[in-house]
Amino acid sequence: MKRAKLTTAELREFLDEKVELYNRPGFIENDPVSIPHMFRKKQDIEIAGLFAAVLAWGQRKTIINKCRQLMEMMDNDPHQFILHHQERDLKPFLEFRHRTFNATDTLYFLEALKWFYENHKSLEDAFYLRDQDTVEKGLDQFQQIFFSLEDAPHRTRKHIPAPARKSTCKRLVMYLRWMVRQDDKGVDFGIWKKIKPAHLVCPCDLHVDRVARKLRLIQRTQTDWQTALELTARLRQFDPIDPVKYDFALFGLGIEEGWK
Q1: Which pLDDT tens digit goes with each residue over 107-124?
Q2: 72 and 191 both lie in a single domain
Q3: Alpha helices by DSSP H, the chain
Q4: Which of 5, 22, 54, 178 could make a disulfide contact with 252, Cβ separation 3.0–4.6 Å?
Q5: What secondary structure does DSSP assign to 53-116, as a single string?
Q6: Average pLDDT of 87-92?
Q7: Given a cut of 70, is residue 152 above it in pLDDT?
Q8: Based on the structure, what is the number of domains in the chain?
Q9: Do residues 164 and 216 both lie within one domain?
Q10: Same domain? 78 vs 181
């Protein structure tokens, strides 16, 4: 099959086949999504998923190991730890680092999450807005809420990007995919019901971006938030209800099949 000469119908059929191939439980073990899959409680899944998504930078094996270490530091009970930890319990986190995510960032995440869960039952509330066509404004809202504490360190802001700053927000929209999408495949959780799968935006990481350009799904020369919206709009032509399921296809073609 020639990559550059597919009709719309052929391209949809091709991508649907790849979704079926890669959206399966076997995908979980070697992916950061395995971290929230360690848990059953909704809030534990949300918290573990947020850390796994934010730390999803570099080799997947290293990401998973670092996230497991972080969960162990929270006694593998993240929601209860965040709500009830004492000052002395935070000492081990002073040594935690992954790439540019350091102890300052970790401690602020714990503080911000404690404040939020003392006032809300679910992180979905931080992302949810009524009457939204995409999650764009919800992502902007989440950043504003997350950094609303007076002692929010400026350096930590880079770990929670926002569309307002033109970022692709690739890790956060991946997180939203995990929390919002629901099917019978077992990878995504579907535990958030206010945000609809139709409102999700496709994570536009390096592999997805390259494959999407090969398939002529992206025309923009740069890769930014508008590029993610452009890609998602194209994917909605194939499935307007669940466009981001094609993330499995594009990512799989890049990682597993080596498309460059």
Answers
A1: 999 999 999 999 999 999
A2: yes
A3: 8-22, 42-54, 60-73, 78-84, 103-117, 124-127, 136-146, 170-180, 206-214, 225-238, 246-255
A4: 22
A5: HHT--S-HHHHHHHHHHHHHHTTT-HHHHHHH--GGGGGGGGG--BTTB-HHHHHHHHHHHHHH
A6: 96
A7: yes
A8: 2
A9: no
A10: yes
Place of tokens 């929670």: 160
Environment class of 114 (CB within 10 Å of its CB; exposed 0-12, middle 13-18, buried 19+): middle
- Whole domain around residue 218: which residue ranges? 1-26+202-260
31 in Cβ contact with 25 (< 8 Å)? no
Contact in structure between 140 and 163 (CB atoms under 8 Å): yes
Distance, CA of 210 to chain centre: 19
Q: Is the pLDDT of residue 1 over 60?
A: no
User: Which band of pLDDT confidence, cut at 50, 70 and 90, is reported for residue 2?
Assistant: very low
Could you tell me if 2 and 77 lie in one domain? no
Residues 78 and 191 in one domain: yes
The verdict on 249 and 142 lying in the same domain is: no
Owner of token pair 């991508």? 15
Of the candidates 4, 2, 3, 15, which has an alpha carbon nearest to the alpha carbon of residue 235? 15
